[in-house]
Amino acid sequence: MIATCLVVEVCERFTSMGVGSNLVTYLTGTMHLPSTTAANIVTNFNGAAFLLCLFGGFVADTFLGRYFTISIGALTEALGVALLTISTAVPSLYPPACNSGSTCIEANGLQVGILNAALYVMALGEAGLKSCVSGFGTDQFNENDEKERSQMVYFFSRFYFVISLGTLLGVTVLIYIQDYVSRTWGYGICCFVFFFVLVAYWSRTTRYRYRKCTGSPIVQILHVLVAALWKRKLKSPSFNTLYDDSIETARIHHTDQLLWLDKAAIIDENDYGANGFVIRNPWKLCSLTWVEEVKMVIRLMPIWASTIFFWTIHAQLLTFSVEQASTMERSIGNFQIPGGSFNAFYIIGILVASAFYDRVIIPLMKRWKGKHGFTHLQRIAIGLVFSIVAMIVAAIAETKRINIANSKGGNLTTLPISCLILIPQFFIVGIGESFMYSGQLDFFITRAPKGMKSMSTGLFLSTIGVGFFVSSFLVIIVKQVTGTQNGTAWLTSNINYGKLYYFYALLAVLSFINLVFYTLCARWYVKTMKNGVQIESIVSSFEEEEKHAMRMDDNLTASLEEDHDK
Description:
Layout: H1 2-20, H2 23-29, H3 35-89, H4 109-130, H5 133-139, H6 146-180, H7 183-203, H8 217-230, H9 288-306, H10 308-315, H11 320-326, E1 328-329, E2 331-332, E3 335-336, H12 343-369, H13 376-408, E4 415-418, H14 423-446, H15 453-482, H16 500-526, E5 529-530, E6 533-534, H17 543-551, H18 554-565
């Protein structure tokens, strides 16, 4: 049963990364779209897939359950890939190839529209799978059974392994087939893989364990906000008179922040029935515990906002960095590395940094300082620092590449410069992501209300989606400000005639500004009163956060990972 969940995840990663990592080369090379247009199509597609995870989780929690959401998501993604396959197979759905010495014909509105339709159908399917597969896997274990709880730890280790496996297969094998066999075969293989995976998944239907839909935390947040607005004109009473029907062990102490939300827990004459008892309409009256849980979520939002820009940096690996690689010498003997396969170095960066952190940094910090590694806020900061370094390195590499292009002429298909100079920018972003991803995951899970852990994970994933859309927005702004004329514009149809290094430098500057903003947000957060206790500031080495991390034993860590994937 668990094996089918793992296979579904491998298939999803194989398809999404294999398509997304190499899509920009198809858009520029076959569809003849300008570099900036192609980059925005890629980032908008990936951004939609992650943002829709909130919708997928909402549907699963409230209406369909994880099993049916996975089924529908897999079918939807397979349909999207099928449409993408058709768009590459039918000659009328893409422009003719460029003839020698002639101007390339750009894809028309119908051709681009069909391609976009296929991509967004895929994104909708991906959202259903990303939001539910790991959670459905944990549903197969009995939390009250000690043996099954220990088996769940192994499930997570295998789950993260298959994520890496699916991604590596996608950016290597699948991209190689796309570039050197045909796009139709490359995308068609994904359709066949989904068909066999679904058959295996459905064959175990009677043996799965299912959990009933419990409702989405998003609805709870809406209840509190609407109730607070409904009673906004009422005078705030003492907190000990506020309504709270939660059981004693689940109650959260009242805090003196965001007091306007407290009005959602005020009982007025309209909340009493004819028998004199309180009639709770959740759109007009909420418990104080619900209100405090919403406050906890709101406190997460500054950190949420300040971590978005890292994923804007990450978006460059799927767009302009791949275009850079496609213009350079990529041959190793008789083998030529596909441009999109350079994302394998980014994945290697994640794996190397994660292993180094677990095997070297954590033991050293335990031995010398008695600390269980860096805190989640520190890891996020480290990730942001690496994003700045990555863009500086990328700008330097692009300067070397464009100098060669200017000396040899921009029309050269392959510039006489080794693609190896691009490896550091992919690798450094991978290192940064290993810290950023784990730090964000830890922060949003441990700082969210217990009943809202699945939604807090959705918030974390939404930072990735918003980061991709920010990338698209920046590309549009830079294009409008610098123009499109070759030689002066930063981002041109052919990157050999642009000044991409300026764009990378701009991203480095903006990332530094974001790091300052993040530091202020983190400082504010750790100073926030929580349950009447003042937490020490970020400047004092996050001591309270470190003590919290040291108290977490292995069982608690496994439990947090389970809540994350749900």
